[in-house]
Amino acid sequence: MCFPTALKCLLFFFMINLFGCSSTCSTDPDELSRLCAARYNIGANKQLEDHLTARQHDADDMRKQVDLSRQELADSKKQLSDMSLKFATVDAKTESARKKARKIAVELDLKQRDIESKENDLNALDQQIKMLKGKKTNQKETIAQLNQAERDLEQTKAEIQLLNDYLHTDLLIKAENALAYD
Amino acid sequence: MNKRAVNTQYIFILYFLILFISTEAVAWGVPDIVKKAQETLNGTQNKSDDNSTEKKKEFSVAKDATIGAAFCGGLFKILGKADDDVVKAALACGAANAAVTVLAKQGKDKYAKQYSQITSDMASSEKEINLLEGETRSNNQKVNTYQSQVNNLILKEKDDERFIHESAGLREKLDKQLLTNKSARSKAAAKLEILDKQIAELDVIINDSPDIDSLQATKITLVQQKGRLTTSVKQANGMNDELLAQKSKLDNEVIKRS
Q1: For chains A and B, what is the number of CB pairs under 8 angstroms?
Q2: Quick one: which of A156, A168, B34, B236 has the fewest CB in 10 Å?
Q3: CB–CB of B166/B157 below 8 Å?
Q4: Which residues of A touch B8 (CB under 8 A)?
């Protein structure tokens, strides 16, 4: 038996030693090794695992909501873009009418950029939810982050609603009126 | 003695030699940690001695804390930390380990596991909170910079076309900063949720074992961490409001000058 064989034997002894520790540590509170306690905790929290699995299913629903919000934004953006095109052809007779049309056109452009900013918010959220959905480790943190993503989604939806309300009950009507009186 | 027997002897000698070296490495530096930890814990010990009901307790948290501190202190010393820090960290670590042991000895396995998890999470939480605080400070500086840039642009740029052109770039930066702030706020808020749950879990353990001092000490640390995170979230909200206000100010000026 040469020296490498001796090393192999040593390794074998150590493995037996470690296995002995980890297989007998769960009930003895006087157990010195913290490795044993760690092993006991890994995967032991079944309730937390079930909670995470349920939350990961909810993630699909969240992503559907993100898609719906994206669609809403796309519709609004199209309406703004159509309106902007109409304003480009406006040939107002008076200076005050021209000035008014210009201001509305600028605001239409600014609101389109706001929509793009909200689209970026939704994209970032979607990526985060997708990443969290695939995460298997550290359940506690993943659950908290998924809960937070849901709260962020609610807030973003509320902001989009506010923006859409302004566009449909104020800006687009103002723009239609300006076109009608041109 | 044949060759095989000699080799077997070598194996056993090597095996025990390695076991001996590992044990010695952990034990190195332990005696002075025990001494310092015992001195520091004397007050706790005397306090419990004064109380006659405490004397009857089968398990002593202070004694276990000293043993725990010696174990943790030995490890810290091996890792090469400074002496004062060693005792401080060792006591905190030792007291936490001792409380886990006491809870387990009292048959409260569920609480022992929960508390062990809470204390092991505390160090990583501290690192995360420090990073988040740094992120908040950096975001705050950027928001202040953007605020002065908006004011300067509105006040100093008299050429309308140039103003409109420059405001478009600045508006984009404000939007990006809003997204960064939201991300930082979300990270802090998610961590806050975890801390809230840990504090609630700890409250249940404290109600069940009010005699273990280190549980209270852990709760104080958790509440402090929660306070710091709450401040970060509030600051992030304040910064977002400020950025939105600057954006709206810029938009109004753009419309006015168009």
Answers
A1: 74
A2: A168
A3: yes
A4: 1
Question: CB count, 10 Å around CB of A60?
Answer: 11
Q: How many angstroms separate the CA of residue A116 from the nearest CA in chain B? A: 10
Residue contact B101–A144, C-beta within 8 A: no
Q: How far is A126 from chain B (nearest CA, A)?
A: 13
The distance from CA B20 to its chain's CA centroid, rounded to whole angstroms, is 35
Alpha helices in B28-108 (DSSP H): 30-50, 52-55, 61-78, 83-105
Contact partners, residue A132, CB within 8 Å, separation at least 6: A56, A59, A142, A145, A146, A149
ipTM for this prediction = 0.73
For residues A119 and B180, is the Cβ–Cβ distance under 8 A?
A: no
Chain B residues within an 8 Å CB radius of A103: 255, 258
Report the amino acid identity of residue A103: K
**Residue in chain B lying closest to A123 (CA):** B179
Gap from A157 CA to chain B (nearest CA, Å)? 14
| DSSP-based three-state secondary structure for B29 | coil
Dihedral (CA of A49, A53, A56, A58) sign: negative
Residue B12 host element (H or E): helix B3-27
CB B215 within 8 A of CB B209: yes
Q: What tokens were used for B192?
A: 């806050």
Residues of chain A with Cβ-Cβ distance to B104 below 8 Å are 29
Angstrom distance (rounded) from CA A55 to CA A33: 34
Taking contacts as CB-CB distances below 8 angstroms, the residues of chain A near B191 are: 144
A29 CB burial (10 A radius; 0-12, 13-18, 19+): middle
Tens of pLDDT along chain A (182 residues)?
A: 555 666 666 666 666 555 444 444 444 434 434 444 444 454 446 777 888 888 888 899 999 999 999 999 999 999 999 999 988 887 767 788 888 888 999 999 999 999 999 999 999 999 999 999 988 888 889 999 999 999 999 999 999 999 999 999 999 999 998 888 76
Rg (CA), chain B: 29
